[in-house]
Structures are given as structure tokens and as C-alpha cells.
């Protein structure tokens, strides 16, 4: 994904819910997760993951 923050704003507006903002993960990417009305979790991320050493 090219711009996870812009996608977050789109999802937040469409869902009409309060969501946790995207965060920078210690392993590299910037992510956010939402649970849909049927209980499925969707995760979106931007960037590359760095394997642990």
C-alpha cells in the first residue's frame, strides 16, 4: 500500500467508527487493523518488514 494513513482515513470515514490510528511497528511497517461487521480482522500496512536478528 502506498499511503496507509490516507487509506485509514478512507476506512474510518466509511465505517463511521472510532479506530486506532496507524502505528509504526518495531519490525518495520506502518499498520492499522479493523474488524468488519462479521468479525473478520483486516490489517493494512505500508513499508517493508525487517526480519528479526
From TrEMBL:
SUPFAM superfamilies: Glyoxalase/Bleomycin resistance protein/Dihydroxybiphenyl dioxygenase. Gene3D superfamilies: 3.30.720.110. Residues 1-47 form the VOC domain. Pfam families: Glyoxalase. This is VOC domain-containing protein. It comes from Streptomyces bobili.
Amino acid at each position: 500500500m502506498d499511503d496507509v494513513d490516507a487509506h485509514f482515513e478512507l476506512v474510518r470515514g466509511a465505517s463511521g467508527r472510532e479506530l486506532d490510528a496507524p502505528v509504526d511497528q518495531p519490525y518495520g511497517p506502518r499498520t492499522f487493523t479493523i474488524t468488519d461487521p462479521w468479525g473478520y480482522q483486516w490489517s493494512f500496512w505500508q513499508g517493508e518488514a525487517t526480519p528479526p536478528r
